[in-house]
Write a structure and sequence with these properties.
- It is built from 15 helices and 15 strands.
- It is α/β, with parallel strands linked by helices.
- The protein is globular.
- The two termini are 45 Å apart.
- The protein is 37% helix and 19% strand.
- α1 (16-35) packs antiparallel against α5 (150-165) and α8 (206-222) packs antiparallel against α9 (226-237).
- The model has no long low-confidence stretch (mean pLDDT 90).
- It has three domains: 1-171 and 292-334, Bira Bifunctional Protein, Domain 2 (BirA Bifunctional Protein, domain 2, 2-Layer Sandwich), CATH 3.30.930; 182-266, no CATH class; 343-412, no CATH class.
Length: 414
Amino acid sequence: MATTVTAPRGMRDHLPADKARREHVLGVIRGVYARHGFDEIETPVVEDAARLHSGLGGDNEKLAFAVMRRGLTTEDLRQADAPLDLADLGLRFDLTVPLARFYASHRAELPSVFRAVQIAPVWRAERPQKGRYRQFVQCDIDVLGEPGQLAEIELIRATTAALDALGIVGTSIRINDRRILLALLASWGVTEQSAADRALITVDKLDKIGAVGVAEELGTTLGLDPAATADTIRALESANWDSVRGADWLDAEAFADLERLRAALPGVDLRFDPTLVRGMGYYTGTIFEVAHPDFGYSLGGGGRYDGMIGRFLGQDVPAVGFSLGFERLVDLVSLPGSAESDAVVLVYDKDVDPVRLAALKAEALDTHHRVRLEKRTKNMKNLLAGLAEQGFGSFATVGTDTTSLDGVEFRPLA
């Protein structure tokens, strides 16, 4: 039987042009976050299985890849009540749980307010589909130890600066607060915590199943009147800063906090959205997402999760984070074309002496930051087009009589 040579389902290989574009986007994001005072850290790709399944990851825990214990025997298999009994580690499904564990481990070595960057792959056993993969990169920034709104302000400023640097314009930040959501549910008579958690999971499906679908599901699971609930949700979908002010169901203190945040971020299109949930159960306050009118999906999001680190440390630490959707951003960003003096190609005939070729390449490296040697092919058009996609700006042809690049003409690839 032939062995498959494709990447595992839901995972991808990256060809040179794609890899170059990804590295360009990563470089821009890293540069912006460093300018804004965030420090990059690295954590292992695996965490203890018990930590990954401690209730901090919401529905993502169900998608975690488990790593089986070493040295398992058939007796271990017989005695296991569930598959997870055979695992002691798992691949991380996000970067927030590892960050909480990292901070609890290294708090004495970190500043009192720690601004962290994590850019790394994560794994989820998703059902693969367009734009949804089982291995993907997350770009997270978090502020730990700052209880006030300065943390949210810094995160939103750094995130919008990164989007601007990537040339992505027209974005807005949808914003809400978990306290407002809980007050809304309380006005519907949903006050018990487990019921509220189920209700929020349903409301989070609003963009997929619509107001009627959400209302019907809430009616089935919690006994709410579907018609009245649907009317309320439709009204909330068009709500804004002015239309909700003074509403009976609104948590006034949380809304005032959001308005202060809005005032502190002039120039940022901050839009209040009382239907914004974000599915992670660990959020405790402000939540936000990056929206763009041309796309039916968010380009990033995050929120405040003040209770998570305390699960590891034994005392609560205020924390808030913002994650950019790297895989989606990569598809929106083009690799900038290199100028002629930046990246060049020497196209050579097959009979050129390799020692001379090496000398010509060394000469080109004296004045260009990147040099590629390419053997002349029958289909030069395809060769040059591919090199242009990889960011090369110009090329020159060298033959058996070329002893120096002096006087050799470099022509644009594009």
